[in-house]
């Protein structure tokens, strides 16, 4: 496809240059608006097949997205067409993207132009944006991080391709049935996806099962060859990722699974109509649905098939590109850096070896050199139940050749230990790629570690814990391998798009360059006590709280008062994240208000949101408890005006965009040492919510940046947690020492919130009394203290807003642009302009 800029194109460029954040009222030029309006009408007629009169919101969305996609393609083709010296390949089983329309408009500088074009057509931009389904191809933090990184790489013009799976069904839709979580399939593709390009020419065969044969190629040289029993096709679907100011466009390439033969015709003609398509159903099952667990390895075969499917397709694709561009696969590591997002693509280690050995005839040494200089691995959790291992038996059945390669890699790895005088069985057992302690299982973390050039953690604390715990012995063998890369978030989505009011304030206060250089936010420090500025900042928050109150009323029927303190905990429901600690504090506060109803309590609204893995019973019970407590509290006239509790169903990226700018307080209260980083914590602080949190993950670095006086820290640190856990009766002692905690637990255990089933919450309260793996009881009193300090702080608005503004002003470092620059320089060795 060739591209000649038309005069219309030039006009649009002029309009783009003029569109500005500082002057939303300034009209975009008439030409640009007219051009876009005609483009949208054209798409509506000729692609969607509707007239303006018959178009639904969803049709307008499709037409608008298609018109903008053309602009992205133009931006792409206007950009540098030269082959880049080095590309980054980001392999991730999850990309939690959310909506793309506002991202695309904002990065192309076309928000106001699009608004005006649609207004001319009698359509409101907000409703069109609302008609886009979230692309929820991820569970939580890990998937959302991948999406932020893709946007930042495009904005920094880092040549990159993201590789993942095009799930037909993303993360399930959550509804609450009398407080019980129900899951329904999510159907984001039901009306097509206007952003994607299908690329049937990029289709690869992915094998499973079968056997390995040997042949002698010459005297003494034997080659092994895998003969799979089954083949599935991976078909590329590309989503363009446009960077800030449309300067650069990257690709997110998602693989869809298809059968080699869509139908067994003979079987069909023989009358077996179902059997004739069963092979197809089996093949397509691979990209059918996202696994909804985010923390425990269920070890199902389909999951391993997904992992191998997308990893093999991605490696075949990037090798094909490399050979087409450079001729020789031996230079792959000079021109490609592959990042493995967690261990989900760790099968890349033996798969890249296999492709180099068998498809490209490299020697073992050369193949190992290329592999270990191309691959890098990011670890996102140290929780033992989330560390992936696969039974050797399953691997041998599904991927027999890979299992042989893993054995050989492991044999050489253990031999190497011997050469360094490490023969002791205990040492060899800890560094081995095979865990022999509960059946024989392949340790995917060890495999990724060993096959990678660099291994990184996602916050300073997490990286330290990697070095001192899970990867201690492997780290000692290669002390430079582990590096830290603290996570970040894209400010384009989480500040500019989610909070245009705050963005406008920042632009007016410190200038337009804040849109390009987040460090300029620091200029807001000078306004932290400026009465006029503070008033506008507070008005911004008030407006967002009113908007959130409408959403809450709409979705739950609960009325909340925007002048109360909005105290928010939104994230996956997991015991280590301690939503239960927050609920228990809510119960204790409820009791305290009832005991002293005439005291001057700070009015609070506790807002919860998050999904539980469908098989995670304890997490679902925590949701039910939050809902039952909400019912009791909200119905009690004695606490009216002081305390309200809300559980917002179906938490998603779009809902986060509405909630975060409306939050006064951000709950980041995980057991210290357990949250690898957190990224929600960054989104809240950037938008000026104050954090109540533990010394865990990136909270520690947030404290360093915003200053200890502008964050509420409580509880044990990671070392304290380890020490206290070793005490045999820590939970009983903590409950004995805190009558307030004891009373709250008694109230829950007594059935006060579940009179129709008094023992409903015993699994929660019994666990706390006897086990309390996450040390809720131990941290409770200090959490209570911090919360009362927050109540007091709320009564001094000037000091509160000062802290909020200082949070916004000092969060620039947490931009994912900074994270991506660090990866580029220290891991990938690619130049950033
Ligand atoms: C693990 C598993 C285990 C097998 C079943 C399916 C599944 C799906 C996802 C995961 C990933 C869990 C790891 C994860 O999401 N970690 C989070 O990563 C964030 C980004 O680095 C970080 O901010 C969070 O603290 C960390 O919990």
TrEMBL record:
One cellular component term (GO) for this entry is:
cytoplasm
Q: Which reaction does it catalyse?
A: [(1->4)-alpha-D-glucosyl](n) + phosphate = [(1->4)-alpha-D-glucosyl](n-1) + alpha-D-glucose 1-phosphate
Q: Membrane-spanning regions, if any?
A: none
State the residue spans of region: Disordered: 1-26
Q: Which UniProt keywords apply?
A: Allosteric enzyme, Carbohydrate metabolism, Glycosyltransferase, Pyridoxal phosphate, Transferase
- Check the record and name the Gene3D superfamilies matching this protein: Glycogen Phosphorylase B
Instruction: Give GO MF terms, alphabetically.
Output: glycogen phosphorylase activity; pyridoxal phosphate binding
Q: Which Pfam families match?
A: Phosphorylase (PF00343)
| Entry superkingdom | Bacteria
Instruction: Report the InterPro entries cross-referenced here.
Output: Glycg_phsphrylas (IPR011833), Glyco_trans_35 (IPR000811), Pyridoxal_P_attach_site (IPR035090)
Record family assignment:
Belongs to the glycogen phosphorylase family.
Per its record, how is this protein called by name?
Alpha-1,4 glucan phosphorylase
- According to its UniProt entry, this protein's organism is Methylobacterium planeticum
Query: What does the record give as the organism's lineage?
Result: Bacteria, Pseudomonadati, Pseudomonadota, Alphaproteobacteria, Hyphomicrobiales
